[in-house]
Amino acid sequence: MKQQDLSRAMTGPESEKSGSNTSPLMRRRDRRLACLLLLLLLLLLLLLLLLLLLLLLVLLLLLLLLLVLLLLLLASQLPYHCCSPPARLWHARL
């Protein structure tokens, strides 16, 4: 009896380390935990991708705003004869 207890005590931690002594329920729980961690990682990657797309959209909108401002600046530098007829008449009155 004491010999069995001694052999169990000596082989217990080693068999737990190797995983041969784990029950199927523990292995199933470990698989579920691994799947949940993988799902969480995928969700974080998706969130990062969405943030990158949002940043790209903001940069494109800023570029469009810069282009519009540049066009307005160029349009303000045009001579008066390119303006609409009422503006030309108003300029002639001055």
Automatic annotation (TrEMBL):
Keywords annotated in UniProt: Membrane, Transmembrane, Transmembrane helix
Residue ranges, annotated region (Disordered): 1-25
Keyword Transmembrane helix applies: yes
Presence of keyword Membrane: yes
Residue ranges crossing the lipid bilayer per the database entry: 33-54
Protein name per its UniProtKB record: Uncharacterized protein
Species in which this protein is naturally found: Polarella glacialis (Dinoflagellate)
Lineage summary: Eukaryota, Sar, Alveolata, Dinophyceae, Suessiales
